[in-house]
Design a protein that fits this description.
Low-confidence stretches: none
Number of helices: 4
CATH class: Alpha Beta
Order of helices and strands: EHEHEHEHE
Largest sheet: 5 strands, parallel
Number of strands: 5
Distance between the termini: 22 Å
CATH architecture: 3-Layer(aba) Sandwich
Structural class: alpha/beta
Shape: globular
């Protein structure tokens, strides 16, 4: 059964992303939304961790939350896919379980 992991906290304020990456199994999906979108940005201290995760996880970022924080898709780490709200729903439906990391 595949799992969609969701992270909505900034990696610069909480350790939700760190915990998620530690426990997420290969082939799982990770969606970054709300302040979690900061983890998807190029040139940050967490970029190496996200790049490592891309080798074993499908990583997504919620486009409307990026835009709400003033970022465009050009700022996103290569390999991270931008999804809209319908894509978020599709990810939740496609995966057997959703695990929220707080």
């Amino acid at each position: 059964m595949s799992i969609l992991h969701t992270v909505n906290k900034s990696p610069f304020e909480r350790n939700a992303l760190e915990s998620c990456l530690k426990f997420a199994t290969d082939g799982s999906a990770l969606l970054l939304f709300e302040d979690g979108v900061y983890a998807a940005l190029k040139g940050t201290a967490v970029e190496p961790h996200v790049n490592d995760a891309l080798a074993r996880l499908k990583v997504y970022v919620l486009g409307p939350d990026l835009q709400a924080r003033g970022f465009s898709a050009e700022r996103i780490i290569e390999g991270v896919s931008v999804v809209d709200y319908a894509g978020f729903v599709d990810l939740a439906a496609e995966n057997g379980k959703v695990q929220a990391w707080l």
